[in-house]
Amino acid sequence: MAQAKKAKAAKPADKVDYEGNPLPDLPDLSWMGNTFQWGTKALPERYGGGLTLAALNIGIYGDIPEHIPHRNRLPRGAVPVISAGNIGGYYIQDKYEQWADSSPYLYEEGISRRWSTATDIPWETGRGLSDDVEVAIAQVATELSNWGSVESEVVSAWLQNLSPGYHEVKYYLSTAVYDSARIEEGYRKRALLNGAGMMLESPGRMNRACLESYGSWSNTVLFMWILRGSLMQAIVRYLSVYGPTEADRELAFRILPDIMRKSAYACDHIRFAISKKPELITTFNAGLTVAEFAQLSDFNDPVLWEALAIIFGDGVENMDEGMKIVLELQQHFLETYISKCSQANLGREAQIKSGAWAGILMGVPMTGHATPDEMRAQVAAIMQKNSGKK
Fold first, then answer.
1. Considering its fold, how many domains does the chain have in total?
2. Structure confidence by residue, pLDDT tens digits, 291-327
3. Helical (H) or strand (E) element with 310
4. Alpha carbon distance 375, 387 (integer Å)
Protein backbone atom coordinates (compact mmCIF):
# COMPACT_ATOMS: atom_id res chain seq x y z
CA MET A 1 0.00 0.00 0.00
CA ALA A 2 2.85 2.38 0.89
CA GLN A 3 4.58 1.62 -2.41
CA ALA A 4 1.35 2.31 -4.32
CA LYS A 5 0.97 5.69 -2.63
CA LYS A 6 4.60 6.49 -3.35
CA ALA A 7 4.19 5.57 -7.01
CA LYS A 8 1.03 7.68 -7.29
CA ALA A 9 2.78 10.65 -5.72
CA ALA A 10 5.59 10.33 -8.22
CA LYS A 11 3.31 10.65 -11.29
CA PRO A 12 4.44 13.64 -13.37
CA ALA A 13 0.83 14.81 -13.94
CA ASP A 14 0.41 15.59 -10.27
CA LYS A 15 0.39 19.30 -9.35
CA VAL A 16 2.33 20.36 -6.24
CA ASP A 17 3.08 23.61 -4.52
CA TYR A 18 6.60 24.97 -3.87
CA GLU A 19 6.94 22.69 -0.84
CA GLY A 20 5.93 19.61 -2.79
CA ASN A 21 2.43 19.36 -1.36
CA PRO A 22 -0.14 17.98 -3.86
CA LEU A 23 -2.65 20.48 -5.30
CA PRO A 24 -6.20 19.64 -6.39
CA ASP A 25 -6.98 19.48 -10.08
CA LEU A 26 -8.50 22.73 -11.37
CA PRO A 27 -11.42 22.85 -13.85
CA ASP A 28 -10.73 23.57 -17.50
CA LEU A 29 -11.26 27.33 -17.74
CA SER A 30 -10.19 27.72 -21.35
CA TRP A 31 -13.67 29.08 -22.13
CA MET A 32 -12.68 32.27 -20.34
CA GLY A 33 -10.64 33.30 -23.36
CA ASN A 34 -13.55 32.98 -25.79
CA THR A 35 -14.42 36.60 -26.38
CA PHE A 36 -13.94 38.55 -29.58
CA GLN A 37 -12.98 41.81 -27.91
CA TRP A 38 -11.90 41.81 -24.29
CA GLY A 39 -11.74 45.19 -22.64
CA THR A 40 -14.52 46.93 -24.57
CA LYS A 41 -16.37 49.05 -22.03
CA ALA A 42 -19.79 50.61 -22.51
CA LEU A 43 -20.10 53.97 -20.79
CA PRO A 44 -23.23 55.73 -19.57
CA GLU A 45 -24.39 58.71 -21.60
CA ARG A 46 -23.19 62.09 -20.48
CA TYR A 47 -25.54 64.55 -18.77
CA GLY A 48 -27.63 61.90 -17.02
CA GLY A 49 -28.77 59.83 -19.97
CA GLY A 50 -27.79 56.58 -18.29
CA LEU A 51 -26.43 53.45 -19.92
CA THR A 52 -28.54 53.31 -23.08
CA LEU A 53 -28.94 50.63 -25.70
CA ALA A 54 -27.18 52.76 -28.32
CA ALA A 55 -24.20 53.19 -25.96
CA LEU A 56 -23.55 49.44 -26.19
CA ASN A 57 -22.81 49.63 -29.92
CA ILE A 58 -19.07 50.17 -29.63
CA GLY A 59 -16.12 48.23 -31.02
CA ILE A 60 -17.17 45.00 -32.67
CA TYR A 61 -20.50 45.27 -30.90
CA GLY A 62 -21.32 48.25 -33.05
CA ASP A 63 -20.71 46.22 -36.21
CA ILE A 64 -24.23 45.36 -37.36
CA PRO A 65 -23.95 42.89 -40.25
CA GLU A 66 -26.16 42.90 -43.33
CA HIS A 67 -26.94 39.22 -42.79
CA ILE A 68 -27.15 37.01 -39.68
CA PRO A 69 -26.21 33.42 -40.66
CA HIS A 70 -27.35 31.79 -37.43
CA ARG A 71 -30.95 30.75 -36.86
CA ASN A 72 -30.80 30.45 -33.10
CA ARG A 73 -30.61 32.69 -30.05
CA LEU A 74 -26.96 33.66 -30.58
CA PRO A 75 -26.53 37.19 -29.17
CA ARG A 76 -24.76 39.52 -31.60
CA GLY A 77 -21.07 39.60 -30.71
CA ALA A 78 -21.06 36.30 -28.80
CA VAL A 79 -18.86 33.34 -29.80
CA PRO A 80 -20.99 30.71 -31.57
CA VAL A 81 -21.12 27.17 -30.21
CA ILE A 82 -21.38 24.55 -32.94
CA SER A 83 -23.48 22.20 -30.83
CA ALA A 84 -26.17 24.88 -30.43
CA GLY A 85 -27.29 24.28 -34.02
CA ASN A 86 -30.34 25.99 -35.49
CA ILE A 87 -33.90 26.03 -34.21
CA GLY A 88 -37.23 26.81 -35.79
CA GLY A 89 -38.08 30.36 -36.78
CA TYR A 90 -35.69 33.30 -37.15
CA TYR A 91 -35.86 33.02 -40.93
CA ILE A 92 -35.80 36.81 -41.43
CA GLN A 93 -32.02 37.11 -41.32
CA ASP A 94 -31.26 40.15 -43.50
CA LYS A 95 -30.86 43.62 -42.08
CA TYR A 96 -32.96 45.34 -44.75
CA GLU A 97 -35.97 43.21 -43.80
CA GLN A 98 -36.34 44.64 -40.30
CA TRP A 99 -33.77 47.28 -39.38
CA ALA A 100 -34.40 50.91 -38.45
CA ASP A 101 -31.64 53.15 -37.11
CA SER A 102 -34.11 54.68 -34.68
CA SER A 103 -34.89 51.36 -32.96
CA PRO A 104 -32.63 51.73 -29.89
CA TYR A 105 -33.79 55.31 -29.31
CA LEU A 106 -37.47 54.42 -29.69
CA TYR A 107 -36.94 51.60 -27.20
CA GLU A 108 -35.39 53.96 -24.65
CA GLU A 109 -38.20 56.47 -25.14
CA GLY A 110 -40.84 53.76 -24.85
CA ILE A 111 -39.60 52.44 -21.52
CA SER A 112 -38.98 55.94 -20.14
CA ARG A 113 -42.57 57.00 -20.90
CA ARG A 114 -44.14 54.32 -18.76
CA TRP A 115 -47.69 55.05 -17.70
CA SER A 116 -50.74 53.13 -16.55
CA THR A 117 -54.34 53.38 -17.67
CA ALA A 118 -55.36 52.31 -14.18
CA THR A 119 -53.77 55.17 -12.27
CA ASP A 120 -52.76 57.91 -14.74
CA ILE A 121 -56.19 58.62 -16.25
CA PRO A 122 -58.66 60.72 -14.21
CA TRP A 123 -61.51 58.27 -14.73
CA GLU A 124 -63.70 60.09 -12.22
CA THR A 125 -63.96 62.97 -14.73
CA GLY A 126 -65.47 60.69 -17.38
CA ARG A 127 -69.00 60.85 -16.01
CA GLY A 128 -72.13 62.83 -16.70
CA LEU A 129 -72.48 62.53 -20.48
CA SER A 130 -75.80 62.30 -22.26
CA ASP A 131 -76.74 58.80 -23.35
CA ASP A 132 -76.17 59.46 -27.05
CA VAL A 133 -72.65 60.85 -26.51
CA GLU A 134 -71.81 58.04 -24.08
CA VAL A 135 -72.89 55.41 -26.60
CA ALA A 136 -70.91 57.19 -29.32
CA ILE A 137 -67.67 57.28 -27.29
CA ALA A 138 -68.20 53.63 -26.37
CA GLN A 139 -68.49 52.79 -30.08
CA VAL A 140 -65.26 54.61 -30.95
CA ALA A 141 -63.57 53.00 -27.94
CA THR A 142 -64.68 49.57 -29.12
CA GLU A 143 -63.13 50.05 -32.54
CA LEU A 144 -59.86 51.49 -31.19
CA SER A 145 -59.64 48.65 -28.68
CA ASN A 146 -60.15 46.20 -31.54
CA TRP A 147 -57.34 47.78 -33.57
CA GLY A 148 -54.97 47.67 -30.58
CA SER A 149 -55.70 43.98 -30.12
CA VAL A 150 -54.89 43.27 -33.76
CA GLU A 151 -51.60 45.17 -33.52
CA SER A 152 -50.37 43.33 -30.43
CA GLU A 153 -51.23 39.94 -31.92
CA VAL A 154 -49.63 40.69 -35.28
CA VAL A 155 -46.35 41.96 -33.82
CA SER A 156 -46.17 39.10 -31.32
CA ALA A 157 -46.56 36.60 -34.14
CA TRP A 158 -43.72 38.17 -36.14
CA LEU A 159 -41.22 38.38 -33.27
CA GLN A 160 -40.29 34.69 -33.45
CA ASN A 161 -39.29 35.13 -37.09
CA LEU A 162 -37.02 38.18 -36.70
CA SER A 163 -33.37 37.38 -36.12
CA PRO A 164 -32.16 38.06 -32.56
CA GLY A 165 -28.97 39.40 -34.13
CA TYR A 166 -30.83 42.69 -34.63
CA HIS A 167 -31.80 42.85 -30.98
CA GLU A 168 -32.49 46.61 -31.02
CA VAL A 169 -35.47 45.99 -33.30
CA LYS A 170 -36.82 43.18 -31.13
CA TYR A 171 -36.38 45.23 -27.97
CA TYR A 172 -38.32 48.12 -29.48
CA LEU A 173 -41.05 45.86 -30.87
CA SER A 174 -41.52 44.32 -27.44
CA THR A 175 -42.46 47.79 -26.18
CA ALA A 176 -44.71 48.26 -29.22
CA VAL A 177 -46.62 45.09 -28.27
CA TYR A 178 -47.14 46.54 -24.81
CA ASP A 179 -48.20 49.92 -26.21
CA SER A 180 -50.73 48.26 -28.51
CA ALA A 181 -52.09 46.14 -25.67
CA ARG A 182 -52.47 49.33 -23.63
CA ILE A 183 -54.58 50.86 -26.41
CA GLU A 184 -56.79 47.79 -26.30
CA GLU A 185 -56.95 47.90 -22.50
CA GLY A 186 -57.44 51.66 -22.15
CA TYR A 187 -60.29 51.92 -24.60
CA ARG A 188 -61.95 48.78 -23.26
CA LYS A 189 -61.98 50.48 -19.86
CA ARG A 190 -63.47 53.60 -21.44
CA ALA A 191 -66.27 51.62 -23.09
CA LEU A 192 -67.19 49.99 -19.78
CA LEU A 193 -66.77 53.07 -17.59
CA ASN A 194 -70.40 54.23 -17.56
CA GLY A 195 -72.40 51.19 -18.55
CA ALA A 196 -72.58 51.53 -22.33
CA GLY A 197 -70.21 48.59 -22.77
CA MET A 198 -68.62 47.22 -25.90
CA MET A 199 -70.47 48.11 -29.08
CA LEU A 200 -70.08 47.03 -32.74
CA GLU A 201 -66.76 45.63 -33.85
CA SER A 202 -64.81 47.15 -36.74
CA PRO A 203 -65.85 45.92 -40.22
CA GLY A 204 -62.55 44.06 -40.20
CA ARG A 205 -61.25 44.37 -43.74
CA MET A 206 -58.21 46.35 -42.68
CA ASN A 207 -57.79 44.09 -39.66
CA ARG A 208 -57.58 41.18 -42.05
CA ALA A 209 -55.06 42.98 -44.26
CA CYS A 210 -52.80 43.45 -41.22
CA LEU A 211 -53.27 39.91 -39.91
CA GLU A 212 -52.66 38.32 -43.32
CA SER A 213 -49.70 40.40 -44.50
CA TYR A 214 -47.57 37.28 -44.85
CA GLY A 215 -45.42 38.60 -47.68
CA SER A 216 -42.91 40.28 -45.40
CA TRP A 217 -42.54 42.10 -42.12
CA SER A 218 -42.12 45.26 -44.19
CA ASN A 219 -45.59 44.78 -45.68
CA THR A 220 -47.02 44.40 -42.20
CA VAL A 221 -45.35 47.63 -41.12
CA LEU A 222 -46.68 49.44 -44.19
CA PHE A 223 -50.27 48.32 -43.72
CA MET A 224 -50.51 48.52 -39.94
CA TRP A 225 -48.37 51.49 -38.91
CA ILE A 226 -48.20 53.71 -42.00
CA LEU A 227 -51.67 53.28 -43.51
CA ARG A 228 -53.94 52.30 -40.63
CA GLY A 229 -51.58 53.90 -38.14
CA SER A 230 -52.17 57.26 -39.81
CA LEU A 231 -55.92 56.86 -39.32
CA MET A 232 -55.53 55.79 -35.69
CA GLN A 233 -53.22 58.74 -35.08
CA ALA A 234 -55.75 61.15 -36.60
CA ILE A 235 -58.65 59.80 -34.55
CA VAL A 236 -56.70 59.83 -31.28
CA ARG A 237 -55.31 63.31 -31.98
CA TYR A 238 -58.84 64.67 -32.50
CA LEU A 239 -60.08 62.89 -29.37
CA SER A 240 -57.26 64.56 -27.41
CA VAL A 241 -58.85 67.90 -28.38
CA TYR A 242 -62.55 67.14 -28.87
CA GLY A 243 -62.98 64.28 -26.38
CA PRO A 244 -66.20 64.87 -24.40
CA THR A 245 -64.56 64.56 -20.95
CA GLU A 246 -61.19 65.20 -19.36
CA ALA A 247 -60.70 61.43 -19.06
CA ASP A 248 -61.25 61.00 -22.81
CA ARG A 249 -58.84 63.78 -23.68
CA GLU A 250 -56.17 62.56 -21.27
CA LEU A 251 -56.43 58.96 -22.48
CA ALA A 252 -55.99 60.06 -26.09
CA PHE A 253 -53.18 62.45 -25.18
CA ARG A 254 -51.30 59.65 -23.40
CA ILE A 255 -51.77 57.16 -26.24
CA LEU A 256 -50.76 59.52 -29.05
CA PRO A 257 -46.95 59.31 -28.48
CA ASP A 258 -47.20 55.51 -28.36
CA ILE A 259 -48.79 55.53 -31.82
CA MET A 260 -46.28 58.01 -33.18
CA ARG A 261 -43.31 55.91 -32.06
CA LYS A 262 -44.63 52.99 -34.08
CA SER A 263 -45.06 55.11 -37.19
CA ALA A 264 -41.55 56.54 -36.66
CA TYR A 265 -40.12 53.02 -36.67
CA ALA A 266 -42.20 52.12 -39.73
CA CYS A 267 -41.06 55.12 -41.79
CA ASP A 268 -37.44 54.62 -40.76
CA HIS A 269 -37.52 50.90 -41.56
CA ILE A 270 -39.14 51.29 -44.99
CA ARG A 271 -36.71 54.07 -45.88
CA PHE A 272 -33.78 51.86 -44.86
CA ALA A 273 -35.11 48.87 -46.82
CA ILE A 274 -35.48 50.99 -49.95
CA SER A 275 -31.96 52.39 -49.51
CA LYS A 276 -30.64 48.82 -49.67
CA LYS A 277 -32.97 47.53 -52.36
CA PRO A 278 -34.51 50.32 -54.46
CA GLU A 279 -36.59 47.80 -56.40
CA LEU A 280 -38.73 47.40 -53.28
CA ILE A 281 -40.45 50.71 -54.06
CA THR A 282 -42.53 48.95 -56.70
CA THR A 283 -43.36 46.07 -54.36
CA PHE A 284 -44.29 48.33 -51.47
CA ASN A 285 -46.48 50.60 -53.58
CA ALA A 286 -48.29 47.61 -55.06
CA GLY A 287 -48.97 46.29 -51.57
CA LEU A 288 -50.25 49.66 -50.36
CA THR A 289 -52.60 49.89 -53.33
CA VAL A 290 -54.25 46.64 -52.23
CA ALA A 291 -54.30 47.65 -48.55
CA GLU A 292 -55.85 51.02 -49.41
CA PHE A 293 -58.83 49.24 -50.94
CA ALA A 294 -59.32 47.41 -47.64
CA GLN A 295 -59.09 50.69 -45.73
CA LEU A 296 -61.43 52.36 -48.21
CA SER A 297 -63.93 49.55 -47.73
CA ASP A 298 -63.89 50.13 -43.97
CA PHE A 299 -64.40 53.84 -44.63
CA ASN A 300 -67.73 53.05 -46.23
CA ASP A 301 -69.10 51.81 -42.91
CA PRO A 302 -71.06 54.70 -41.36
CA VAL A 303 -70.85 53.60 -37.72
CA LEU A 304 -67.45 55.07 -36.85
CA TRP A 305 -68.07 58.38 -38.61
CA GLU A 306 -71.53 58.84 -37.11
CA ALA A 307 -70.19 58.07 -33.64
CA LEU A 308 -67.42 60.64 -34.09
CA ALA A 309 -69.90 63.19 -35.46
CA ILE A 310 -72.06 62.74 -32.34
CA ILE A 311 -68.99 63.23 -30.11
CA PHE A 312 -67.70 66.26 -31.98
CA GLY A 313 -71.17 67.79 -32.21
CA ASP A 314 -72.00 67.01 -28.57
CA GLY A 315 -75.13 65.08 -29.40
CA VAL A 316 -77.24 63.58 -32.17
CA GLU A 317 -79.01 66.88 -32.76
CA ASN A 318 -75.70 68.49 -33.77
CA MET A 319 -74.36 65.70 -35.97
CA ASP A 320 -74.18 67.94 -39.03
CA GLU A 321 -71.78 70.26 -37.23
CA GLY A 322 -69.90 67.26 -35.91
CA MET A 323 -69.58 65.83 -39.42
CA LYS A 324 -67.68 68.96 -40.45
CA ILE A 325 -65.03 68.05 -37.89
CA VAL A 326 -65.13 64.45 -39.12
CA LEU A 327 -64.25 65.77 -42.58
CA GLU A 328 -61.29 67.64 -41.07
CA LEU A 329 -60.24 64.42 -39.35
CA GLN A 330 -60.45 62.43 -42.59
CA GLN A 331 -58.42 65.09 -44.39
CA HIS A 332 -55.88 65.06 -41.56
CA PHE A 333 -55.61 61.29 -41.90
CA LEU A 334 -54.82 61.53 -45.61
CA GLU A 335 -52.34 64.37 -45.11
CA THR A 336 -50.64 62.34 -42.37
CA TYR A 337 -50.58 59.25 -44.58
CA ILE A 338 -49.11 61.17 -47.52
CA SER A 339 -46.50 62.67 -45.21
CA LYS A 340 -45.50 59.28 -43.80
CA CYS A 341 -45.21 57.80 -47.28
CA SER A 342 -42.98 60.70 -48.22
CA GLN A 343 -40.81 60.18 -45.13
CA ALA A 344 -40.48 56.51 -46.11
CA ASN A 345 -39.43 57.53 -49.67
CA LEU A 346 -42.54 55.97 -51.21
CA GLY A 347 -44.18 59.11 -52.56
CA ARG A 348 -47.86 58.17 -52.98
CA GLU A 349 -49.24 61.70 -53.07
CA ALA A 350 -50.16 61.60 -56.77
CA GLN A 351 -51.95 58.25 -56.44
CA ILE A 352 -53.93 59.35 -53.39
CA LYS A 353 -54.94 62.74 -54.75
CA SER A 354 -56.12 61.27 -58.04
CA GLY A 355 -57.76 58.12 -56.66
CA ALA A 356 -60.77 57.20 -54.57
CA TRP A 357 -59.57 59.37 -51.67
CA ALA A 358 -59.60 62.54 -53.76
CA GLY A 359 -63.13 63.49 -52.75
CA ILE A 360 -62.16 63.81 -49.09
CA LEU A 361 -59.30 66.17 -49.92
CA MET A 362 -61.72 68.25 -51.98
CA GLY A 363 -64.20 68.54 -49.13
CA VAL A 364 -66.55 65.56 -49.58
CA PRO A 365 -66.52 63.44 -46.41
CA MET A 366 -67.01 59.70 -46.54
CA THR A 367 -70.03 58.97 -44.38
CA GLY A 368 -70.85 55.46 -45.53
CA HIS A 369 -74.19 56.59 -46.92
CA ALA A 370 -73.26 58.09 -50.30
CA THR A 371 -72.71 55.70 -53.21
CA PRO A 372 -69.52 56.00 -55.30
CA ASP A 373 -71.56 57.63 -58.08
CA GLU A 374 -73.03 60.15 -55.67
CA MET A 375 -69.57 60.99 -54.34
CA ARG A 376 -68.23 61.41 -57.88
CA ALA A 377 -71.11 63.78 -58.61
CA GLN A 378 -70.28 65.82 -55.51
CA VAL A 379 -66.62 65.99 -56.51
CA ALA A 380 -67.56 67.02 -60.05
CA ALA A 381 -69.81 69.78 -58.68
CA ILE A 382 -66.97 71.12 -56.51
CA MET A 383 -64.57 71.05 -59.45
CA GLN A 384 -67.04 72.88 -61.65
CA LYS A 385 -67.67 75.45 -58.92
CA ASN A 386 -63.94 76.00 -58.43
CA SER A 387 -63.31 76.33 -62.17
CA GLY A 388 -65.99 79.02 -62.34
CA LYS A 389 -64.19 81.07 -59.69
CA LYS A 390 -61.04 81.35 -61.77
1. 1
2. 999 999 999 999 999 999 999 999 999 999 999 999 9
3. helix 302-313
4. 18
